[in-house]
Design goal:
The chain is an alpha/beta fold. It is built from 17 helices and six strands. Among the domains are: 189 residues, 3-Layer(aba) Sandwich (Rossmann fold); 59 residues, Histone, subunit A (Orthogonal Bundle), CATH 1.10.20.
């Protein structure tokens, strides 16, 4: 556990100069210093209770909320290293459709948990928790602050709250479930799941093979419904003081416009070519592989298979991304957090507001 005097060392030397520069530049550029806005902003930021835990910044929000850009601006002014909380950016070669930082950015600002597995491999929330905690420990030992950024809310929750104890995957059982699915189809397997675990089946689409398979696997291995196991108490060792920041759109329609513009840019920047290349490179990859079920990739696979035309690819890709954003916002609303500061991600000065908030919080540590 890191004591207050060790945390205080973060603000020595060059970082103090950066903070001073930030204060001056923010004051000059936005005319915020000593203004009513700053006083009002400060009054609205509740201070988390003081303790001896090192800080960790959590920057959460739906897709197209500007998380990545704000994170880069934070990294310019604060001693942080970025940890990606994105279940799609873990895959190598999936760059365009995941809005992954380019190589120049990755070389300038430390990023973690990006490009760690191939598209034909699997990655879980449990594995993310192990990896993230190890990386956060190393970042803290370097006298820097972990900045966790992304939209995979399950990963955020797993990290802070822990995960229920579930059995590990059983390769033979999974093959048996897959064989049954080939014979009768995943909708039929979904009905079977409903017989064993009605609550879980109600939350899963009848075409969601990955989640149906896992839920059935847990039922068969434990002789208990997954929904009941998830209600068991979770043990979570999270030795950090979480500074939770949520980017929430004030107007959902404006976020939808951003999503459409973003997906159109992905198509222009070579999303179709990217998916085509990945499918050629990995012979065992299918449309049901977790990587190809990611928003944008699933629709592009259907286009390459001749099931969609270009116009349908665009429309379905945008619609799927909007649905993803809706789910992310629902997760954010339902996540249990002791303190959370919300910002309108559509505001022109959203990044400035976030930086002022962080400056205030971190200077008190």
């Amino acid at each position: 556990m890191i004591r207050n005097n060790r945390i205080a060392n973060i603000f020595n030397g060059l970082f103090l100069q950066k903070i001073q520069w930030m204060r001056q530049s923010l004051a000059e550029f936005h005319s915020l210093s000593n203004s009513y806005f700053v006083q009002k902003l400060s009054a609205n930021f509740p201070m988390p209770p003081a303790n001896n835990l090192p800080p960790a910044i959590f920057l959460m929000g739906p897709t197209a909320s500007g998380k990545s850009q704000i994170a880069l601006e934070i990294a310019t002014h604060f001693p942080v290293e970025i940890v990606s909380v994105d279940s799609a950016q873990v895959y190598r070669f999936m760059d365009v459709g995941t809005a992954k930082p380019n190589q120049a950015t990755l070389s300038q600002i430390p990023h973690h948990l990006i490009n760690i597995i191939n598209p034909d491999q699997h990655y879980s929330a449990a594995q993310f928790r192990v990896d993230a905690l190890n990386i956060m420990k190393a970042i803290t030992q370097r006298n820097k602050i972990p900045l966790l950024v992304g939209g995979t809310m399950l990963y955020f929750r797993a990290l802070q709250e822990g995960l229920a104890e579930l059995p590990s995957a059983d390769a033979n059982l999974r093959l048996s479930i897959e064989r049954m699915a080939k014979e009768s189809g995943w909708p039929a397997m979904h009905k079977k799941l409903a017989e064993l675990d009605q609550e879980t089946a109600a939350r899963i689409k009848s075409t969601d093979s990955q989640r149906i398979q896992r839920a059935l696997e847990v039922c068969y291995l434990t002789q208990q419904p997954l929904s009941e196991l998830l209600k068991n108490p979770k043990t979570a060792d999270f030795p950090y003081r979480a500074i939770n920041i949520a980017l929430i759109p004030k107007e959902r329609s404006q976020l939808h416009e951003r999503i459409a513009i973003r997906f159109e840019a992905m198509l222009r920047n070579g999303l179709i070519d990217e998916v085509e290349f990945i499918r050629r490179q990995f012979a065992f990859l299918t449309n049901e592989s977790p990587s190809m079920r990611c928003v944008g990739y699933r629709q592009t696979c259907l286009f390459l298979d001749g099931e969609l035309n270009v116009s349908e690819l665009h429309d379905k890709g945008v619609a799927a991304t909007r649905q993803l954003a809706k789910r992310q916002l629902t997760w954010l609303r339902n996540m249990e957090m002791h303190t959370r500061q919300e910002f309108n991600c559509l505001a022109d000065d959203a990044s400035t507001q976030v930086q002022i908030f962080l400056q205030q919080i971190l200077s008190e540590i």
